[in-house]
Amino acid sequence: MKQFYLETFGCQMNVVDSERIVALLEEIGYRQTDSAEQADLILLNTCSVRDKAERKVIGHLGRFKPLKDARPELIIGVGGCVAQQEGAAFLDRIPYLDLVFGTHNIHRLPEMVAKVERDRQRCHAVDFLDRETRLRLFPKRSDTDSVTRFVTVMQGCDNFCSYCIVPHVRGREVSRPSGEILAEIRELAAAGVREVTLIGQNVNSYGLGTEGEVSFAGLLRQVAAVEGIERIRFTTSHPKDLSDELIDCFGELDKLCHHLQLPLQSGSDRILRRMNRGYSADDYLRRVERLKKVCPDIRLTTDIIVGFPGETEEDFRATLEMVERVRYADAYTFLYSPRPGTAAAELEDDTPAEVKQERFDRLLEVQNAISEQTWQADVGRVLPVLVEGRSRQGRGQLFGRTTWNRIVNFAGDESLIGRIVDVRVVRSFRNSQLGERVAGDGDAGASVSFG
Ligand code: SAH
Ligand code: SF4
Ligand code: F3S
């Protein structure tokens, strides 16, 4: 049997796209392998959001060149956002690359692979599809043995934040019909899924611009009514589209986890304007206050960009101040880098790299301290954990997540997988927590805590 090797970079969209790639390749007789050396087909599903993404992909592909030299029949392909951005030019730049497929062309992969196999002809497909075709091809998968699943509810982005490549490589926003989303979630629940994460570049604008469609808050209420689904998460939220109706869902819907990823990007109004974000620091804070009012134990995480063109020390201090006021449980911090074709790439940028790096380090220090305090506060507390599977730590350990999306490892029997159980947190680390199960989650059989 022919084998393929696939590496995935980037966000949840690419994770879901990669699942689709796997399914499509299996249909044409390929089996997945985790060894590039053994593979007949090597694919990279790429992300272009970071600095020098193109060069990094080329560097990464270089690792496979000796394999191609030794076995010319090996097929090498690049998909995802870098592929979308580079198109046919990538074939010119990388002589040993066979295929390039963009973000709207995953469904064409089987045909493209067959073409390379048959004619030894290199090919590419990076055209954007129309709305109807995209809706027809929306990623969906209900055959699963996992407890948690991503469900794509919308694709693309219309926001054009001035620094961001995503709208250029993913195309315009389309919302999937709510009837189809619910049908998929019902199937997932029947297959044993207990938690769904609704995903899209900006889920808060779900349904806007589609006549007769429910709002995102309306969609959440419908998902919450699906029997068998016990937890709901969603990502990513744009603060400008976080409506009061949506915020209030955190107070109303028991199944909605008490965690929200709410990208701030900057705490300075001047920079937010230059970023084309559509909200001020005050607008953002008002939403945070309402969130904390309707759901007092909600934890927020965020994305922040340091060193945007024209950012002054004062602008940066405004960001630090927001971080201290909101007290994020975690933050993903990025040094600004110009992305080709975006509006910000045209802006003058005279802040020296060392100054940006120094700001970045200061931000990290402040945030790390807050994160540490947040997580240490969990130690000793008993928290409901949805058990997702066997832990990578081995030794009879299971793992699951708290409502705040923190991973907890604890000893327990596999029969608990798929259930919400009470776990006392005994230690807190950077990326996970260690716990022990306690009685009181309604399970008559086991009441021991494991050491
Ligand atoms: N749709 C999501 C994710 C966008 S990309 C959202 O709107 O939140 C993820 C993060 O990468 C962004 O939130 C931003 O913080 C960061 N990012 C995007 N473009 C960047 C750039 N040019 N330089 C530095 N960070 C960037
Ligand atoms: Fe990029 Fe802004 Fe769209 Fe997020 S909302 S994907 S940051 S353009
Ligand atoms: Fe990256 Fe594309 Fe996602 S650029 S963040 S993989 S939409």
Automatic annotation (TrEMBL):
What taxonomic ancestry is recorded?
Bacteria, Pseudomonadati, Thermodesulfobacteriota, Desulfuromonadia, Desulfuromonadales
Q: Which GO terms describe its cellular component?
A: cytosol
Task: Name the InterPro entries on file.
Answer: Elp3/MiaA/NifB-like_rSAM, Methylthiotransferase, Methylthiotransferase_CS, Methylthiotransferase_N, Methylthiotransferase_N_sf, MiaB_methiolase, rSAM, rSAM_horseshoe
Q: Which CDD domains match?
A: Radical_SAM
**Name of the protein:** tRNA-2-methylthio-N(6)-dimethylallyladenosine synthase
Q: Which residues form the MTTase N-terminal domain?
A: 2-118
Q: Where in the cell is it found?
A: Cytoplasm
Q: Where is [4Fe-4S] cluster 2 annotated to bind?
A: 157, 161, 164
Briefly state the protein's biological role.
Answer: Catalyzes the methylthiolation of N6-(dimethylallyl)adenosine (i(6)A), leading to the formation of 2-methylthio-N6-(dimethylallyl)adenosine (ms(2)i(6)A) at position 37 in tRNAs that read codons beginning with uridine.
List each copy of the Radical SAM core domain by range. Answer: 143-373
The UniProt entry's sequence similarity note says: Belongs to the methylthiotransferase family. MiaB subfamily.
Q: What is its main location?
A: cytoplasm
